[in-house]
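Private note to self, pasted from the team thread so I don't lose it. Backbone tokens:
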């Protein structure tokens, strides 16, 4: 009795595994979130009064829909982001867990974001007197920073999931970015000019 073996195979070799699904899973993880350097995130958020965050949410949800098979309407989730912040952070958590990272995109940070957005919306009704103008601006700047804090926090986790911890692939400022930065600086210039005039007046 004889046994024929394929010349390209050996009985001592481990069976070849089909890595197609694994490779596809890694590809989805790497492209399921929006990568940006945290410095660029801070600059654009500050200069646009955090309007950049709407774009940030949109890009994340669009990538979730396109590359992670997450059924959603990105533009709706971006505009009404406070209702979907916990869901996005949970998606980041799942990706972190699947890659074995110990850090997490904390649900507390998502809650903090929602609370600061609500507080900011309520305080927008404050109509400061001339004497209160400086205090109002300080409070306004603090609100912008507090809103941005949890996004800055989760962006670090997103960049790690996408194998780009520094966000190098999206660190440079584009022409469009500079246009919005210029508009933002003009706005801030008018704000501080108004404060200065109120003091000398």
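Design output:
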């Amino acid at each position: 009795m004889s046994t024929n073996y394929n010349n390209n195979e050996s009985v001592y070799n481990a069976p070849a595994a089909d890595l197609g699904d694994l490779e596809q899973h890694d590809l989805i993880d790497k492209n399921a979130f929006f990568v940006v350097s945290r410095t660029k995130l801070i600059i654009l958020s500050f200069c646009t009064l955090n309007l950049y965050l709407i774009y940030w949410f949109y890009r994340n949800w669009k990538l979730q829909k396109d590359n992670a098979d997450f059924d959603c309407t990105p533009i709706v989730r971006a505009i009404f982001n406070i209702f979907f912040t916990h869901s996005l952070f949970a998606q980041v958590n799942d990706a972190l867990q699947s890659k074995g990272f110990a850090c997490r995109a904390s649900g507390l940070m998502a809650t903090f974001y929602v609370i600061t957005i609500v507080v900011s919306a309520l305080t927008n009704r404050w109509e400061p007197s001339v004497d209160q103008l400086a205090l109002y601006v300080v409070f306004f700047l603090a609100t912008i920073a507090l809103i941005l804090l949890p996004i800055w926090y989760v962006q670090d986790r997103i960049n790690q999931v996408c194998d780009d911890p520094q966000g190098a692939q999206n660190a440079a400022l584009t022409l469009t970015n500079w246009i919005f930065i210029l508009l933002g600086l003009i706005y801030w210039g008018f704000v501080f000019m108004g404060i200065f005039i109120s003091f000398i007046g």
